[in-house]
Amino acid sequence: MYIESVLADETPATSSPRYRDRRIAVVVPAYNEELLIGETLYTIPDFVEKIYVVDDCSDDRTLSIIQEYAKKDPRIIPIHHEENMGVGSSIVSGYKAAIADDLDIAAVMAGDNQMDPAFLPKLLDPIIDGKSDYTMGNRLISPVYRKGMSTWRFFGNAVLTFLTKMASGYWQMMDPQNGFTAISARALERISLDDVYPKYGYCNDLLVKLNVWGFRVINVPHPARYGREKSGIKYSSYIFKVSWLLLKDFLWRLKMKYVVLSFHPLVFYYALGFVITCLGIFGGIYSLYYKFVLGNAMFVPLVMSIIVFGLGAQFWLFAMLFDMQQEKNTNGWY
């Protein structure tokens, strides 16, 4: 990876751009975005001080277009990956550059011009006002806002939203696949950026890490915007990959947040819920075997299996309730 210096020959400005007296960076990940990267960079607001455009080893003219725009706009800092590393890795490269330049807030706007810059202030305001450390767009809040989103894409987002709620502990959060986000410098400095998932799914993984350290997250409603971009996500396989990632993240969060950094008995509720629920499922399978293979009446074993399964489900629900209460307590270190 290398970062081009486009400011070396520029005369230092007397004052850099600010938004409400904060220094703002925008990270623009780009991979084969020659069609729309120019439009994306052209529309970024003037109050943004630094624009880190990360080319993830594109096969087309993306990098050369970024370099041309950097000559016209001194705010643009091209970052080039020598090999394709994934969108998560691209965003982390931009985050690290923002930390090195001592920026206050880093937002993310994809290179496909899908994110309306008019809504950027709505992401920044809660962080500046001290209400949040991480803001994320929400296109799922109403049918009007998700207009243009395919049924299959909405279904995939809905499934991953629920799984991410459970894995991350942010139960009020929606639309975790939305890449239109902003994060405070203190949050970036605290979490381990090198451990963030490098591919699609980085946004889900990042939420888990933010929750462990007690950072506050707020959703910002905004309408979806679809045009000439082509999504590189295949939801048929993507949902399964991210689900496996979220399972690992869920177990890691329980260990770190409720065992290592502090303690809460909800970990026992989750564990007992899992074991007892599995016993109930196996009991139900045995009841079918008992009836259709052995030829015996299945009433008693089936009823017992249902009772056991219900008991396990109650443990799960109590664990989730305790987890939700922890979110409302906002008892993190920050």
Topology:
Blueprint (H helix, E strand, L loop, with lengths): L1 E2 L20 E7 L6 H6 L7 E6 L6 H11 L3 E5 L6 H14 L4 E4 L11 H9 L5 E5 L12 H18 L12 E4 H6 L11 H11 L4 E5 L13 H26 L5 H27 L6 H31 L5
Parallel strand pairs: 2-3, 2-5, 3-4, 6-8
Antiparallel strand pairs: 1-4, 5-7, 6-7
Helix pairs in contact: 5-8, 7-8, 9-10
Class computed from helices, strands and strand pairing: alpha/beta
Termini separation comes to 32 Å
Question: Major sheet: order of its strands?
Answer: 1-4-3-2-5-7-6-8
**Which radius of gyration do the C-alpha atoms yield?**
23 Å
Mean pLDDT: 90
Instruction: Estimate the helix proportion, in percent.
Output: 40-55%
The helix tally amounts to: 10
Shape: elongated
Q: What summary fits the major beta sheet? A: 8 strands, mixed
Query: What name does CATH use for the topology of the largest domain?
Result: Spore Coat Polysaccharide Biosynthesis Protein SpsA, Chain A
Order of helices and strands: EEHEHEHEHEHEHHEHHH
Which CATH C-level class of the largest domain is it?
Alpha Beta
**CATH homologous superfamily of the largest domain - what is it?**
Spore Coat Polysaccharide Biosynthesis Protein SpsA, Chain A
Runs with pLDDT <50, length 5+? 5-14
Query: How big a fraction of the residues is strand?
Result: 5-15%
